[in-house]
Design a protein that fits this description.
The chain has about 290 residues and is an alpha/beta fold. It folds into 2 domains: about 210 residues, P-loop containing nucleotide triphosphate hydrolases (Rossmann fold); about 55 residues, Alpha-Beta Plaits (2-Layer Sandwich), CATH 3.30.70. Helix content is about 35%, strand content about 30%. The protein has 11 helices and 13 strands. The strands form 3 sheets. Strands 5-6-7-3-8-9 form a 6-stranded mixed sheet, sandwiched between helices. Strand 1 and strand 2 form a beta hairpin. Helix 3 packs parallel to helix 5, helix 4 runs antiparallel to helix 5 and helix 5 packs parallel to helix 6. The structure holds adenosine-5'-triphosphate. Adenosine-5'-triphosphate (ATP) binds next to strand 2 and helix 1.
Amino acid sequence: MINLENVSLKYGNTVALNNVSLKLPDQAICGLLGRNGAGKTSLLSLLCAFRRPTSGTITISGENPYESRNIMPQIALIDDDQSEIENAFQAKELIKITAALRPNWDAAYAEKLIKLFEIPVKKKMRDLSHGMRSAVRVIIGLAGQTPITLYDEAYLGMDAAMRKLFISELLSDYTQRPKLILFSTHFVNEMEGLFSETIIINKGQVIAHDDYDNLRSKGTVVTGFSEVVNSFTNGREILSQRVLGRQKEVVLFGELSENDRLAAEKKGLEFSHPSLQDLFIYMTERGGKEE
Ligand SMILES: Nc1ncnc2c1ncn2[C@@H]1O[C@H](COP(=O)(O)OP(=O)(O)OP(=O)(O)O)[C@@H](O)[C@H]1O
């Protein structure tokens, strides 16, 4: 269990995280969503003890990660690091070095993934394409089997087919060997089916943390004849709207009361929930807090 209490992180005068409190379970695939500069990387860098918070406390399994030799090998951060040091190694050397640092390393799984992603392992990292370098990193993330694995935009440069392969591996591995995976992404539409829970971070603050279905249920899509939809949605918080001939679809923020729903159904309106991406965009545009 990860527990953050009133955690803030400042870089000089820049407040990257502002009084964040968060509890994360031992087993989940948790999406970390936020606009550029929202504080996602800052949060992940605290969790893997690359940085210390300016104020507040972080505990992982009850221990302070900065002072614990037990905790550090249990956490891996997989990011889009382009450092010269890493780029100087052959892919297979980088994999071998990392394997030595990971107590739960699954060598057979790493070999399987190298074949699956068709990695030319003798090439230096700097000579691989961006997508291939990312594939090497996610192989390290998957084969490392760390109980807490953090992916920070780890698949950048991968084409759609490769991203699909990665997601499918992540899911099947999680099903067999559950752990805590935190997954920061801007590909909300593509990845949202992956998340058992989602954290939305905006301007350094956690504005929502809920399971996937609960979060999506905070929005309502209303569809029907334009005039009926207009009279029903008038005065409510509208996320987006589009007209389809005589029909109209309006996305509202918030759940409808049972009375509202029954009244609208009598008028022939239909309801569903918006995508996580639509909700995310709305919540971070208005900067609002989850009710
Ligand atoms: N090393 C640093 N020095 C100074 N300011 C920083 C540093 N790293 C991040 N920041 C600032 O902290 C804030 C949060 O940045 P962070 O990288 O955590 O955001 P992010 O959500 O990961 O963004 P992105 O999606 O663009 O990667 C931003 O205002 C950023 O400019």
